[in-house]
Amino acid sequence: MEVFEKWESEIRGYSRTYPTVFASASNARQVDEHGRSYVDFFAGAGVLNLGHNNPRMKRAMIAFLEADGVAHSLDMATTTKRDFIEKFVATVLVPRGMTMKLQFMGPTGSNAVEAALKLARKVTGRREVVAFSHGFHGMTLGSLALTGNEFFRAAAGVPLENVVRLPFETAPGGGIQALADYRALLADVSGGLAPPAAFVVETVQAEGGVNVASAPWLRAVQELARDVGALFVIDEIQVGCGRTGSYFSFDGMGLDPDVVCLAKGIGGYGTPLAMNLVRPEHDAHWLPGEHTGTFRGQGLSFVAGREALTYFEDDVLLTEVRAKGERMASALRALAQEAGEDRGFAVRGRGMIQGLDVGDGSLAKAVVAESFARGLLVGACGSGGRVLKLIPPLTIPDDDLAEGLEILREAVHESL
Amino acid sequence: MEVFEKWESEIRGYSRTYPTVFASASNARQVDEHGRSYVDFFAGAGVLNLGHNNPRMKRAMIAFLEADGVAHSLDMATTTKRDFIEKFVATVLVPRGMTMKLQFMGPTGSNAVEAALKLARKVTGRREVVAFSHGFHGMTLGSLALTGNEFFRAAAGVPLENVVRLPFETAPGGGIQALADYRALLADVSGGLAPPAAFVVETVQAEGGVNVASAPWLRAVQELARDVGALFVIDEIQVGCGRTGSYFSFDGMGLDPDVVCLAKGIGGYGTPLAMNLVRPEHDAHWLPGEHTGTFRGQGLSFVAGREALTYFEDDVLLTEVRAKGERMASALRALAQEAGEDRGFAVRGRGMIQGLDVGDGSLAKAVVAESFARGLLVGACGSGGRVLKLIPPLTIPDDDLAEGLEILREAVHESL
Amino acid sequence: MEVFEKWESEIRGYSRTYPTVFASASNARQVDEHGRSYVDFFAGAGVLNLGHNNPRMKRAMIAFLEADGVAHSLDMATTTKRDFIEKFVATVLVPRGMTMKLQFMGPTGSNAVEAALKLARKVTGRREVVAFSHGFHGMTLGSLALTGNEFFRAAAGVPLENVVRLPFETAPGGGIQALADYRALLADVSGGLAPPAAFVVETVQAEGGVNVASAPWLRAVQELARDVGALFVIDEIQVGCGRTGSYFSFDGMGLDPDVVCLAKGIGGYGTPLAMNLVRPEHDAHWLPGEHTGTFRGQGLSFVAGREALTYFEDDVLLTEVRAKGERMASALRALAQEAGEDRGFAVRGRGMIQGLDVGDGSLAKAVVAESFARGLLVGACGSGGRVLKLIPPLTIPDDDLAEGLEILREAVHESL
Amino acid sequence: MEVFEKWESEIRGYSRTYPTVFASASNARQVDEHGRSYVDFFAGAGVLNLGHNNPRMKRAMIAFLEADGVAHSLDMATTTKRDFIEKFVATVLVPRGMTMKLQFMGPTGSNAVEAALKLARKVTGRREVVAFSHGFHGMTLGSLALTGNEFFRAAAGVPLENVVRLPFETAPGGGIQALADYRALLADVSGGLAPPAAFVVETVQAEGGVNVASAPWLRAVQELARDVGALFVIDEIQVGCGRTGSYFSFDGMGLDPDVVCLAKGIGGYGTPLAMNLVRPEHDAHWLPGEHTGTFRGQGLSFVAGREALTYFEDDVLLTEVRAKGERMASALRALAQEAGEDRGFAVRGRGMIQGLDVGDGSLAKAVVAESFARGLLVGACGSGGRVLKLIPPLTIPDDDLAEGLEILREAVHESL
Fold first, then answer.
1. Is there a contact between B145 and A141 if contact means CB atoms under 8 Å apart?
2. Cβ contact (<8 Å) for B139 and A114?
3. Buried b (16+ CB within 10 A) or exposed e, C239-277
4. How far is B330 from chain C (nearest CA, A)?
5. 8 Å CB contact of B173 and D182
6. Which residues pair with D204 in a beta bridge?
7. Which chain C residue's Cα is nearest to D278?
8. Are D243 and D249 within 8 A, CB to CB?
9. What does the pLDDT look like over B140-162, one tens digit per residue?
10. Whole-angstrom distance, CA of residue B356 vs CA of residue B49
């Protein structure tokens, strides 16, 4: 670790939370250089839906490398990119009757959100964007303005403008009525509010504390957006690509977003990729090259991402996700009951993103440390870091899942 | 191409400029699916300093994949990351007596600049940043505010604030005197200027038109920054990593920047990576996790990037770069003379970034198209796209270089 | 009128609403150059609490002029200013046990609000200010940002920043619960809200539509401000100085504001004057000369304003105000019942500011025009101008009041 | 003075500089309550061009009061306002062939500037405005953004946006070439500058240090504005109305501004009035009531202001102004030579605004105090307050002028 302490920036975080040097990884396991193996309930911040070093992807990537495929192409056309697009269209869009355009940009979620903001502002000619309390949308100046967390916001060093903050459904003052009130004020010429360019929302706020929005509320947000002439943007970066038990977290909710932001899991192997789905009538507002990014044509990400999509050709994986998610939720509920009685522990989640809100950041921090000591990687999120967030690979073997849940149980008890 | 036209966003750019589907690539060649081979004077926007699919990197990456190295780690410590850091320190920092800290972030140049801006504002408690005309620093809201190009700026849809614009050395009103005037106005309490947090500068403005700053001017910028309590930030994203004939473009200029932003070439294979070098006294202002990014721990980029660093263990490659750069400049000067007489063609550049300013964007566009038709990939940059920018891989074989220069010559003549 | 049409700016407004040339005025009457006399329910936008050309003030002003008193002094000390200050202290502050400092500035309400904003931001080191829907606080850039009316806001031509908008008590979503929700979100580090520098509120929104806040809600705003470290600022510009039946509109409500903004009526004769009352501990943050204004030392305004204060030495006038206010409200309620049945007319007000909300701006406009034709000056306010606002001089004779109310009754019937 | 110390805000300034209580005033004299008479070289910050309590104005005002003229009318038409407009048109506009519209607003210079900014942004659809170093344009948020003085700017507590700062002609880097450089950068699509809505300039910067612009430079500013589609706005607030020896300070310079901002002297007696002159084609962009202000219809100001205009019916006063101005300049030059040798004293000015730059704020402060002690009111301006600014009433008797200049001479010698 000395190398990191000596040469890496003080900003490093996870290497403090998990103070060891990892040497290899496989599915839901990371192994450090001393050979210690950890169950991984963190999955690279939700990126590794199909596990570390997924063997099908690995084979495809090696073959691609050996064949001198175009590894880096900006937005030139390549055979590999075409394969990815065709697979995405066939697997995801066509079955849903979606006709959205695929936009590639710098391969980070933040960049996807920045592009969505630009487009929404272009399409509407408006400036302000509605974001919700507890939302997390990225760390660059545009996306950071949407992000709720004060710690991140304070680092900007400049005012974060052009955002109107509404409470998320589950926050104080949140819900359908709050949307109706906002609508009424917006309709009043003396309300003092400007009509927004977009509403940007996560269906499940992952960093924000595993806050789960209901379908009716999301539909109300969409309807409000439509009625006031704003774009309805779903930030699907952390909970898309199967995490919640369906490919999109909003599948089956009667939603029809204008823009869907994808990143993290879409590149499959942890290989960077970001992609927005954009309704064609909005996409037509883009001029060629108006939002660029050097790494928007990643051959390895297209290869791995294409392979990842094969997991969604049928419902096998997603059925498992729902089952494992239920197992996780049950375990957490039991834990909340046995350990959290009188402490107000709460369990929230959908599919394989489940959170245990222990009500207090220092307790959560102790549990994370104790879990690590016992061989489990798990992270905290939410206000003050008080929610333990479980986002293991969707492909985690049952044994690893059980082991991880047991370690967590012990760590919680140990930390009380 | 139909797949792209049907499904990819209207924003796609290079697939219009180079309207074919590429299937493979090797060093300074890209080959399309019809088997047509192109000399590549574009190199993935300056990323592929060591060529497409560099065989040493390729071998290392395949070995890493086969060994289940940690492909995606955020900022956890990994053996692979440690290897990269150690190599960078040994090859780049130690020989220069530099003690800067390495900060990793979302793997785009834009993200590196956003992080530098946050830090400069934190360190100084100031808000405004000096950027120069014709600069290009990225497309997210913070870095876009620094970028000079109106086409990109207009897409923001919101005011781009907190930036003071000064003319670059080679722009109207630019030079040492302009810096002195700015200094004097800043010193005057009625000057109406706020003291800046940072000066962010490229030593060679690549996108801005291959505008080359002199060492004395850069030293004057640095001195001004020091004297007014601002950070001196070099955006080395496009011209670092050997492009100009030295590892850093500012080597040997008597400069000592506070922050150096690296991306593009640092990841070696086109694999995304961004990294800031930060003086320790500034780095100490970061709190853990204050600026994050999901893809800030890319195993493949560390492996390829480490391999790339081996090319800078001795002066062999850089000697070649200087020689080839001179060959490119000679060829362009000859071309400017024979074709550009009375047209005011200008040649500018350092090392293997060379520009031919043909004075007019539509002429440059015609040359790009004609070059493509004749088997050469070259791009345009500068105001209105009037500068042909030559940034081939540093490893381009002599024959390919000669062939590319000859194609360009023909294309220019054809386009007049 | 041709002179005005030919030479005065297109921006002129009231000369279109009341298309005649006025030649003289006295108490609650204006007389045009053709000798036509109008009952004045508008009173110079609420400035002329003690009537046009109040004879006591007039005598004092003429004496002052004849004695060569200092008419214009910036913030030099003058005997006249001292007389005003002493009178204000003795009549207003001492009886209430208030120890606030008197700050003079450019003689407009907008300037008073701008000064209050600067001070609140200085004292707290914060940037954002809470303003309420339907609020009106002025037309300069800082105060305009607080103002709710979209017509006025749109004229800014730049984003109006640094303001958080909450619904006024009587607006959709307004009330005590909305304050509690805002408080909760503010307390949550992921709420995405910055702590505010101030809450700026009118007790009765005059321009906003004669919206009357309750004492409990105002106390909740004050308590919230205190608890979150913000200043509690009452904009008393239109409804202070006796308008509501007490000197301050907030008298007797258990409120203890940090800053009170006064203008309009404080200068007495329509002579410009603005003044903030500031708690000494906040006032101590001002540096000498930090917010200036050329016309902040108006001798005539001090003389007339001092004379105006004599009306508040006892309760005679205010008792009358309450009685006349009740008469106005009764008349409006009767009118609302007879004319507004099934039309949802609403009557709102306190003391001698009373509004008849006819639900529709074009109807209100017709009533204003018809009233003018019949010899009554009355204005419209509120969203879309749908509220007839009655703000006659507090000194209006009973006959004039009765006549005005009767004209209004007829005008409403005529306009239906 | 105790009343002021006890009850008036800490922000008070001039009552500290001139620590006495004034009781009366006449032409160029102020007399304190102890009967001490002071020569006034300050004239209410340049407001009282025609002296304190000008007898012709006083008579007119008393007559107006006695006749119950409409003292306060917002923008209703009144006979008094018509008289003022007709007089202004006949005396000022017609002889110059000007056809500008007269816009009235809140009666402060700051308000006039705010209105000009709104209009320029409306007309052009642009956001940024060019202001010059050392400019002073007011204290409300919009005008303050134009003002150069850091002390005033810092009090805003929020970023001052939407302004581009260029050096004034006489500042470091200022002059015709700087305008040409700015023009070139603006014309370059990668210059990073947005086209401005307006250029706002003073012909003589009064608060900024009595900096005098040349006619050629002002014409270059105007030409630049025209060429880039921006409005050319002259802020004539402090040096208009005869101060420089012509009615407008820009008379005879070949200038044809789009907007002229007037305040201070236009109201004559120190009675507040502000007025913009606006070219009709721009004025047509205003909607009725888009920028309002309660005190925009001041009967007393119209009466006094009309009387003031009679002084400009012939050249008698202005001839005197030029002569007295020359006398002032001579005296200052002599003083600079005798006292300022080797100290770099500088004399600057036009007509009856003359400045003695003593190079150092604390010296200037001492001179101001010493002058006061000896019976002269004079103020300091410029960066750090290092310039003694002489702006006596244009009607100052020769004896008073001579006495004041002699006191100043003694005070300077005493203070060295």
1. yes
2. yes
3. bbbbbbbbbbbbeebebebbbbbbbbbbbbbbbbbbbbb
4. 51
5. yes
6. D212
7. C9
8. yes
9. 999 999 999 999 999 999 999 99
10. 20
Over residues B274-311, the pLDDT tens digits come to 999 999 999 999 999 999 999 999 999 999 999 999 99
- Coil, helix or strand at residue D73: coil
- CB D4 to CB C82 under 8 A? yes
Q: pLDDT confidence of B119, banded at 50, 70, 90?
A: very high
Pairwise CB contact (< 8 Å): A127 & C159: yes
With residues binned 3-state (H G I as helix, E B as strand, rest as coil), the percentages for chain B, rounded to 5, are: 45, 20, 40
Smallest CA–CA distance from A177 into chain C, residue: C173
Question: Out of D33, D142, D272, whose CB is closest to C298?
Answer: D272
Subunit contact B74:A18, Cβ cutoff 8 A: no
Q: What is the DSSP string of D192-257?
A: --PPPSEEEE-SEETTTTSEE--HHHHHHHHHHHHHTT-EEEEE-TTTTTTTTSSSSTTTTTT---
Contact list in A for residue B5 (CB cut-off 8 A) is none
CA of B404: how far to CAs of B35, B98, B336, in Å? 18, 38, 16
What is the C-alpha to C-alpha distance for residues C404 and C324, in angstroms, rounded to an integer? 13
User: For residue D205, what are its two tokens?
Assistant: 């910067």
Q: How far is C365 from chain D (nearest CA, A)?
A: 14
Q: What is the pLDDT along chain C (416 residues), one digit of tens a residue?
A: 999 999 999 999 999 999 999 999 999 999 999 999 999 999 999 999 999 999 999 999 999 999 999 999 999 999 999 999 999 999 999 999 999 999 999 999 999 999 999 999 999 999 999 999 999 999 999 999 999 999 999 999 999 999 999 999 999 999 999 999 999 999 999 999 999 999 999 999 999 999 999 999 999 999 999 999 999 999 999 999 999 999 999 999 999 999 999 999 999 999 999 999 999 999 999 999 999 999 999 999 999 999 999 999 999 999 999 999 999 999 999 999 998 778 889 999 999 999 999 999 999 999 999 999 999 999 999 999 999 999 999 999 999 999 999 999 999 999 99
Which domains does chain A possess? 2-53+316-415 (3.90.1150.10), 59-312 (3.40.640.10)
Contacts of C13 in chain D (CB under 8 A): 74-75, 288-289, 292
Residues A282 and A250 sit within 8 Å (Cβ to Cβ)? no
CA neighbor of C324 nearest in space, from C342, C351, C289: C351
| A398-415 helix and A361-373 helix, angle to the nearest 10 degrees | 130
**Nearest Cβ partner for A192 among C135, C161, C162:** C135
Which chains sit next to A, with 3 or more Cβ pairs under 8 A?
Answer: B, C, D
Chain A residues near residue C173 by CB distance under 8 angstroms: 177-178, 180-182, 184-185
Is the whole model's pTM more than 0.95, yes or no? yes
H-helix segments, D264-360: 280-283, 299-309, 316-340
| Residues 6+ away with beta carbon under 8 Å from C23 | C31, C32, C33, D69, D70, D78, D79
Give dist(CA B92, CA B87) in Å, integer.
8
A290 contacts B121? CB cut-off 8 A: no
Minimal CA separation from B157 to chain C, in Å = 12
Record: contact D133-B193, CB cut-off 8 A: yes
Q: Nearest by CB to C121, from D19, D120, D158: name it.
A: D158
Residue among C190, C205, C360, C383 with most chain A CBs within 10 A, to mutate: C190
